[in-house]
Fold this protein.
Amino acid sequence: MLNEWIETNTILNALGCDLGKSHPNFKSCPKKRGFIIFLDKNGHVEDADIPDVNIETVYRWQKGKMDPSFPVFNGRAFYEVTCDSTLTPDFIINALKRKKTKKNKKQRDKDNKTKGELKENDELNLQVFINDWCHDLWQDDLKLIGRCLNELPNELQRKYLEAVAAKPGGYRAYEELVKRAGRCQPGKLCDEIRKIFMKKLRDTGKKEFAEVLFAFKKEGKKKGRGKAHGRDFLFLLSIKDWDKPEYGEKRFPPYHSTFQRWMAQTFEQHSKKLYEPLGTKDAFGLDMAGSKDNYDDINAAGLGQIKLFAAYDKIPCLKRYGLESVKLFPAGRNARELGRKSLEYILNRNREGITWISLRKYENRNTVAFAYCTKLTTTNVIKVFESDDIEGQENIYISEEATKTALKTLEGIAESEPTAKIVIGIIASVDKGNTKVLASRHYPLSYYMSGAHRWQEGCANIPEVVLPWLVKKGEVLKGSLPIYPMRATWLLNSSWRQNGDMIMRKQGNQRVPISKRFAASDALDFLFEKDETILARVNAGLENIVEKSAHALIMARLKATLKLELEKLKIEGAHALIIARLNATLNRISFKDSDYLHMLPTLYGLLLHKKGIRKEDYMNEDMFDLGRYFAVVDDLYIQYHMDVRSGNVPISLLGNDHLKLALQNPLDAFINLSSRLVHPYMSWAKRVGTNERPGQIAKNCIRKIAVLIDELSKAQLPTEINDAEKAKLLLGYLSYGTKKDYSPSDNNEQKNEEGK
């Protein structure tokens, strides 16, 4: 992976990117819950609270995971609860379960009353609970915390910062913080923070204070720093009085970005003096100085603490031959610094959604996809691959125009810079800080854009479909939804129950699709490759998704059709008994709708498009018409029961029953349905009057059925069916009942048929 980032460094420098000054041991804090601790002049805790500043943006000095750090240190929860949760005081349990919601005055008054009762009655019980049922987790860490307070800050001052002539604003406040930290006694610091947090928990009932105070051990967790309890926390040290005149004219808090940039520059300058050139070259053609040092940990957004290149020294096959860590691959300090700065620039938290995006929701380990253009730094090129579903952000594949707009910035670059490329890759955090490159591709800019356009064409490669209306974030979603490549690959592994529930398996702390057949790297191939390169995977994906989702989509259309019929009956003022019976049928259909289900038809169209099958062709094919035939029969079947059975519609319809058979043998399904249709359904449709809605729709249905039977009777329907034909069959079934079925000659009959 190191060579990937060294190459990136050359590109970023050529683009004029400011990679900044930094040191491998001076790195941003990981993404964890944090608190700010204010120290007074005597080294006591003046206050402790939830910080206004985002602690992830604060840098701290730390060599390794178990080494001291400053001005932010790690700490576990203060107590481990060793008893059953039933013995835990209610106010702690309530705080841990609390969600952030706005409260009305009545709720606030009730909370205040509860807090008052607690202060009066439960103070003694709380102390008994802590003494009898809580283990002090900080007791084991006091030695390390002492080094964070008394040893490391003074070392940084003495070795790096004091000797610099020009010091920025904020230095005096930082210097004062170092003095106050040096006066701290770890045990007293722990007690003082704990006391403040306990008071704030009682006063506010905030979940954050409950979590940092009390941890419940999780069974099956590996024992380690915080791991047995699910998490640890960050504690940022500062002073409240940093703005006093005695700290200089330009004053900043000790963690201010301006001051921290100066610290990073100072650390880097000092580091360069330590590594004099040796005159020999490493594996990258750079000086070998520093190649024997162990690799430093780097905090990479989305990945956590990693090493740019290292092999875990407990791997037997590497340890046996003495190839662990630095012996496996010679890289000097210069090479490491080039790679580190590139990684920190591309995977900067402020560039999330621009140069990188997390794939953690799809993987059981920290995984990111990154992308950048070799000739332009300001454009978002990762957006063609995946999106974070930011509210108000339009899916770039929703229309041809949306895709063109998203790629507009790159069009001029492609013309003026023919050599421009897009670098795109996927990296996963494996174990003990090691990472693995899952995919790394370099595409010409024109190829990148054509891949995005082809993907959009694939998303549009289906007719309008009938699915239940889905309400999400106040917006009504109708029909199919466009899909991003990573999500498409994830869905190719999915399996669906008939009730619309995706079958999931537990993977670590998350639930994922049941299959592991398709990996994240396949998403890049589906997006950019074509023809024979991906044909085998397209066929495998189509086989899996059609087999595993067909029955869910059939049930989805049934739910949507009956729901629409019910709404129309209510508008037209139908008899109460008919409405009640149809509503009872709907209530018997237990169906779980989701936005993922609305992406399934789009996925069908995408895979057909990858096989070279276009909707303007397959919508005129016999298999598509056969699917529509089953849907028209369902419409007639529903109207028969609305009239003859007074709205008592069964869950299993005549058409969709035979559709399931057609997925095995289309010819048998067509012949069987045509014979069953004659009596009583066609007989009823011919004699029923057109004064009522069922009769009006029935007349239109028998006209369409006659046309479809005539066309399908002339066709050579097969007795076996492949996966592509199954997809066409299902899309034909889902497409009937949309606005595109209208024609000017149908007028009222057609309007009644569609219910629009």
About this structure: The first helix runs from residue 2 to 14.
